Amino acid sequence: MKPRILLVEDEEPLARILGDYLTHSEMDHRWIDHGGQALEAFREYKPDLVLLDLMLPGVDGLTICREIRKVSETPVMMVTAKVEELDRLLGLELGADDYICKPYSPREVVARVKVVLRRLRPTSRPQDSLFRCDEAAQMIYVQGQRLDLTPTEYRLLRLFLSHPGRVYSRDSIVDLTYDMDQEVTDRVVDSHIKNLRKKIARELPDREVIYSVYGVGYRFEI
Ligand code: CA
User: Fold this and answer.
1) Domain shared by 68 and 111, yes or no
2) What is the pLDDT of residues 174-189, one digit of tens each?
């Protein structure tokens, strides 16, 4: 069965182009151009993924995303027209699975849709075999090899492993990884990420798994 994508976008030309790309990539989609119809369409169409524009007539994308999250874990990819908006969105911890900025290339959007959909299939989750987290012992293994991590690096990697593909801003990394009373600057986060990358690279020399997201933060992806 073809994956079903709910496309919530009020700019018709964009929606048409993206729709064509989805069709060519063997995906079904339904297009909604009004925020007020999104939730009804979500319930009816039962999509595998929602591509959700932020600024919509009627109900905005933030509200729609929150409403979807109340009832479902269906992946949501938020689309925003402003790069500056990204940080604010990430800070809201909406539970969206990815964030895309306009103007975008439809090809890239479809590629990212595929990545998110692939993660959903239980049979093809490579992180399950590559990375294993032993929460009780606070240890993480890569291909069976234990990583020699500091407590902070452990918490960082555990955060990434809990939501592969999700983009984390430096602020949200600080909130979710560090103790409340620590003064943590962006540079501190960056240097911990650098060390973590080095340690992972010893076991996985040919692969990048922690990606920098320009102007925003980091994303873990296998
Ligand atoms: Ca819009």
Assistant:
1) yes
2) 888 888 777 888 899 9
Q: Which of 105, 120, 135 is the last residue of a domain?
A: 120
Asked whether 99 and 167 are in contact (CB, 8 A), the reply is yes
Expressed as residue numbers, the domain containing 37 is 4-120
Tell me how far the alpha carbon of residue 55 lies from the centroid of ligand 1, in angstroms.
Answer: 4
Task: Tell me the helices (H) and strands (E) count for the chain, helix number first.
Answer: 9, 11
Q: Which of 72, 87, 120 lies at the terminal end of a domain, its last residue?
A: 120
Judge if pTM exceeds 0.70. Answer: no
Is the separation of the CB atoms in 173 and 124 below 8 Å?
Answer: no
Residue 179 alpha carbon to ligand 1 centre in Å: 38
Residue 102 shares a structural domain with residue 165:
no
- Which residues are near ligand 1, the ion (C-beta closer than 5 Å)? 10, 53, 55
Mean pLDDT of 74-94: 80
Compute the distance from residue 73 Cα to the ligand 1 centre, in Å: 23
Number of domains making up the chain: 2
Q: Give distance in angstroms: CA of 58 to centre of ligand 1.
A: 11
